[in-house]
Specification:
Shape: globular
Mean pLDDT: 86
Strand content: under 5%
Structural class: mainly alpha
Number of strands: 0
Oligomer: single chain
Largest sheet: none
Low-confidence stretches: none
Helix content: over 70%
Length: 236
């Protein structure tokens, strides 16, 4: 029982941050005009600070998730705010729906290898390859290249906002993997990865909702920051 409670405790921060994100979205109009810039630039600040912290504490797994999230947020700002009818938008959206949860699940499962070494470079190279694939989708207009993602793989109604069924299936599978990894490894980073998958799903289910995307991306970033600090203190 004690071991189970300790494992569940790893999810306390992600759950609290998700709850805080929902409250902030609900009361979004109450944000003072002087802080309005946080709606746009807040995620860059949080994710950039988190990446610096992960590098300082040599946490390569957290860094991969943070880099993936900042690329996802940048893509939303550039291509998705006007909806999925814009050229290349469907390709970007499909790439995010698949690559973001996969990267988070891999970060939850893979062993910690640090940042400034060949393992860290290799993992960042994987993210770069994914970005290149997304760029190819954009160049192709994204219609035929990713049409299969929007196919109905399940005969029953199965949807979350605008997310395609293939993306939803990927998210569910990756969330299960991340949660299992958190229980097995008892790592706060793995629990943070699971929370980040949920936060990303909420952020991305309506691609045009920039404020929601911003808040939940910041929540995902804060999950990784808290996880890095927790694991760093735990392993001292």
């Amino acid at each position: 029982m004690r071991s189970l409670l300790q494992a569940l405790a790893r999810f306390a921060a992600p759950v609290l941050l998700l709850a805080a994100a929902f409250v902030l979205v609900y009361f979004g109009n109450a944000l003072p005009p002087s802080l309005a810039g946080l709606k746009v630039y807040g995620p860059y600040i949080v994710l950039g600070a988190g990446a610096a912290l992960a590098t300082a504490f040599n946490r390569g797994r957290a860094l991969i998730v943070l880099v993936t999230l900042v690329l996802a947020y940048g893509a939303q700002q550039l291509w998705l705010q006007q909806g999925l009818s814009a050229p290349g938008a469907r390709g970007v959206y499909a790439a995010l729906a698949v690559f973001v949860p996969i990267n988070a699940a891999l970060a939850a499962v893979l062993p910690e290898r640090g940042v400034l070494n060949r393992h860290g470079v290799l993992r960042l190279a994987v993210v770069a390859v994914e970005a290149g694939i997304a760029a190819c989708f954009i160049a192709a207009g994204g219609a035929r290249a990713v049409g299969w993602v929007w196919q109905k793989f399940f005969p029953v109604p199965f949807g979350v906002g605008s997310l395609p069924q293939a993306g939803i299936a990927t998210i569910i599978a990756c969330l299960i993997v991340a949660v299992a990894a958190a229980f097995v490894s008892r790592s706060a980073v793995s629990a943070g990865c699971a929370g980040a998958i949920i936060a990303f799903t909420v952020a991305a289910h309506v691609p045009t909702a920039s404020y929601t995307f911003s808040i939940f991306t910041m929540a995902a970033g804060m999950m990784m920051v808290v996880a890095v600090l927790h694991d760093a203190v735990r392993n001292r």
